[in-house]
């Protein structure tokens, strides 16, 4: 019975977190606002989290762990090239995960946490790439520029899609990402 109550409390806290993030942003969020909107007492909140930063950390950790898990499950089979690391199947899996958590992801991206989330996404892509033996130590463009160009750009495409209310289908977004990967900057605008 206790686990059911804890799960229900966490769901209500998350729902309140998303709503407050949408209206006030993270910096103006307080535990009092969360508990009031979630219709729980402060003690219930503190049974689950130390403070709003602990709540945010758990949310971010869950999101990025799930994305990394999606990538690793499919990467382990083959890992020789960037095309395998960033295959259509893997990208679509990440897009589907983001879509299935649209309310939370959109709230995070449209809030005062946007820069932090985008940086974490870029770092996650870099870490996945590095774990799969990609040569990031001797690229044709010096580091950290090479990593920022590749991983920052792909994460920016995801962020833009989220900020545009995920209007494109997963397949359309995949086409945008694949076009970016295949075209030079000059070709993109010609």
Automatic annotation (TrEMBL):
PROSITE patterns: HTH_TETR_2. Residues 7-67 form the HTH tetR-type domain. Keywords: DNA-binding. Pfam families: TetR_C_8, TetR_N. InterPro entries: Homeodomain-like_sf, HTH-type_Tx_Regulator, HTH_TetR, TetR_C_Firmicutes. Residues 30-49 bind DNA. This is TetR family transcriptional regulator. One of its GO terms (molecular function) is DNA binding. It comes from Ligilactobacillus salivarius SMXD51.
């Amino acid at each position: 019975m206790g686990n059911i109550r804890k799960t229900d409390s966490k769901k209500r806290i998350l729902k309140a977190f998303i709503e407050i993030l949408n209206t006030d942003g993270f910096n103006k969020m307080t535990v009092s606002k969360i508990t009031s909107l979630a219709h729980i007492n402060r003690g219930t909140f503190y049974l689950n989290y130390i403070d709003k930063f602990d709540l945010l950390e758990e949310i971010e950790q869950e999101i990025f762990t799930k994305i990394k898990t999606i990538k690793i499950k499919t990467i382990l089979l083959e890992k020789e090239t960037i095309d395998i690391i960033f295959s259509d199947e893997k990208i679509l899996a990440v897009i589907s995960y983001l879509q299935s958590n649209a309310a939370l992801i959109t709230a995070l991206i449209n809030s005062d946490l946007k820069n932090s989330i985008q940086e974490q996404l870029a770092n996650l892509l870099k870490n996945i790439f590095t774990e799969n033996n990609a040569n990031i130590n001797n690229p044709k463009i010096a580091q950290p520029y090479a990593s920022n160009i590749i991983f920052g750009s792909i994460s920016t495409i995801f962020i833009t899609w989220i900020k545009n209310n995920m209007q494109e289908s997963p397949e359309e977004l995949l086409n945008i990402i694949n076009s970016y990967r295949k075209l030079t900057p000059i070709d993109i605008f010609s």
